[in-house]
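Problem 12. The chain below contains 174 residues. Write out its predicted structure in token notation.
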Amino acid sequence: MLISGKILPLDRSNIDTDQIIPARYLTGISKTGYGAHLLEDVPHTTINDPKYKDAVVLLTRENFGSGSSREHAVWAIMDRGFKAVVAISFARIFEENCYNNGLVPVKLKQEEVDILFKENECEIDVVNQIVKTPQWGVFTFDLDPLKKEFILRGGFLKFMESKVSKVKQWEKQH
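Solution.
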């Protein structure tokens, strides 16, 4: 799985889930429609700058996704077209929600994130766990092997769907 394209820079730390998708929009259980309100209440972001319209990588600082457990935050990011979020660190529940929904959470060192803020685009190779930059080289990142499978299959539920036939086969044999 390769993610290649523009980076949307969000040069901030401690962006919480209420900033990612304000609570006033949490009126449904559908995974769509939230992207229009992504980061709506965060002042001075580039989220609506036309030059980042097609960005597929959201780049931020540490502790991204803190606050309440809100799967809608991941849905909003994905609904806006992002395939990955690159940060120094993530709130644990937000990171789990990324894996469960197929959004790639990439943790890099602070100096590597600093370098990415100088770039306009990058390529993320999920299988080999590397981020390639046009000017600055390659950075590696870690993914839990099982959770990496969730991402490669499109999220936890799709991963589980892929196991149904094996479970049914096992049931027949036992």
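Discussion. The CA atoms of residues 29 and 101 lie 14 Å apart. Students who got a different answer should revisit the alignment rule from Section 12.3.
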